[in-house]
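Hi, can you check this record?
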Amino acid sequence: MKLPELHLFDKKEKPQYFLAFILRDEKAIAVIFQELYQKAKIIGKGEEHFTSSVEEATDEEFLDVCDKAISKAEDVLPPGVETQKTIFGLKDEWISEEKIKKEYLEKLKKLSSELGLTPIGFLQTSEAILNLLKNEEGAPVTAILVEFLKDFVIVSVVKAGKVVESKGAQLSETEALTVENLLKHFQALEILPSRILLYGGNSEKFLQQFLSHQWSKSLNFLHLPQAISLPDDLDVKGILFGAATQLGFSVMADFIKKEAKEEIKEELAVSEDTEETVEEPESKAMEGETEIVTEPEEAFGFLEGGDVAKEKAPKASEEELTEEAETLEVSSSVKDTEDKERLDEKEEIEHTPEQSLEQEEEPRIRGRKRGSQFPAVLGKTRSFVSPVLGYSKKGLSLLNGFKGKKIIVIPVLAIILIIVLYVFYVFTVSANVVLTLEPKTEEQKQTVTFVEGGQTNAENSEIAALISSVTEDGNSETKATGKKDTGTKAKGSVTVCSRYTDDRTLPSGTVITSSNNLSFVTENSAKIASASADASADCSKATISVAAKEFGKEYNLPAGTKFSVGNFTASDIIAKNDNPFSGGIKKEIVVISKDDLSKAQGDLIKSLQDKAKEDLATKIPNDKVLLPLLINPEINDSSTNKKVGDESSTLSIKGTVSYDGVVYSKKDLIDFAKALFKNKLSDNQTINDKSISVDVEDIKDEDGNLVADLNFKVALLPKIENKDLAAKVSGMELNEAINYFSKLPQVNDVKINITPNIPFLTKSLPRASGNINIQTK
């Protein structure tokens, strides 16, 4: 999607700040970038993880996570500067036909309204990444793009810079094997690209695994696959590059400089020296909220072809200009302590901001900075600072008698400044403590009965379940293994000699047997006349055509071979061939056997199982879980290219297969697991609900009930009482606090971030325990 171009301010030396806000499956990423002299660079970055995923997050969690991510990114900005112009980086699933889907558009509208954002466009994350790679390599990318999330992987086949097919799955066994199994289900391209690009989720640690992986021969790669690890923040770089390109900037750097905040302060100082008018951030935020709430969807800022840069910047109100003028006047009065009138005027003006703060309604935003930040901080602590300000005014009045003695004013102002800073430090400095815990893994095997329509009962090892069905169409091919003899049968004729005194008829199909026990059958009937009663007389004769009963050259008998006829004795009727038999040939061929048909049906069922699981998973609610093993697979309708016994090297089968899936509640699974492991928990341990996993080893039907052998795995974590722990460490030196946290059970790493970080002051944790936030991961 093309972003609208924005016209820069007339004076290029004045920087502009933009927010790139990227929503991924498991986290929100906020990036602040600055434009100066037509060049963009990243100056701040913050990210926050969702409890489960962005799709499953409640509205409250969604706003809270986004708020925290943006607040972290804005830490580099000094008071009075705030980003509002926002470019969104969105998942592919949120976009259809180059437009944001309606349900997600409403979500983003609410987000923008609550956090005071002014949307100016959006980018599709995958498209932004591919455009960045195209720019770096000089040509559209053709490769397999593999993105690693927390416990999920997304594989996309890219041809000429376009995603032609994409699939995702939970990580199982090894990462390379998971990707290989996914690629087996891709159908868009007959030949897969041999270049595999890995990014996200610290992908570099998987690189060696992919390089040494033995890929299945069933995957038709163009060449031997080669894996490359890309930067994990590729999505951030892609969105920044796409946004900067569309806005007409060039990208300078993609690292957050430590001195970024100081650079911004210097730039702002230059702006103040040139007396340029700065727009009030609060005013802009309110304007953005009004547009989003009152205007139709087109006013949200995401339409192609629209140019929000053409909208006129809001002018400062008379009150704002008056307040700014008064602030400047106050600053002048402090410097000139000899002018009594200015001191009186300053005393009057200094009450005005305090009164307006009391009357101002606090916005809904918790962490996001709005307007002038320093007055907002003073607002929180004005009950402590007001007396100080009062004394400072009286002190300044007393100083009126010391005209020309400015040397006294300087120490007094220094003391007041120290008091204000101390009060600010004690009551506003906050600490964020992140404890990385090392879980203790436990597992236990348990035979469980899934009761359809029943209740979960851990004591009886019963879990309530539902049965959900799905049908899939597909085909399968297997190699034929049956054997069968074929060929031609030996043929010839025999002379039958009868000594019966009456006429005899030999019917067609009469069996005659050679002296070496080879059987032949007559091909026509023959009538034999009666023989003379005189024993010395010749027998009556008749000639009959015969053929061998089986294939084989051993039936090619020589002339003069004698045969017994049917059930007659040799003294009554006998046969002999005057000429040798010929034409007998035998060979073995491959045919379709019953076992081949059974195997083809089994392969068809297996080949459609993964697709059946995916389709079933989309049907069940978010609070339900599908048992990994499907049951009752049945081929309802099928056809084959050959029948059993037909000569063929392969058997192809096409059909429809139905599957049943066992569905149960996540809550029931968690409750069951907790009851199962309760005897293994100590008093200071708890089970991480997200860590509970189940492997199905066997499942069978017993008297109409589904009985399964399950292997439960859980992670045991220590109980962390945040309030009690914060009270114990409040006021501690940083090194002492880190040492204290490190000695807690199962704590693997400790990170402490003090905000704001003031040199020489923020070397210890806040004294107010309420300002200490403790998180675990």
Remarks:
- Residues 1-12, 253-366, 369-405 have pLDDT under 50 and may be disordered.
- The CA atoms of residues 71 and 368 lie 5 Å apart.
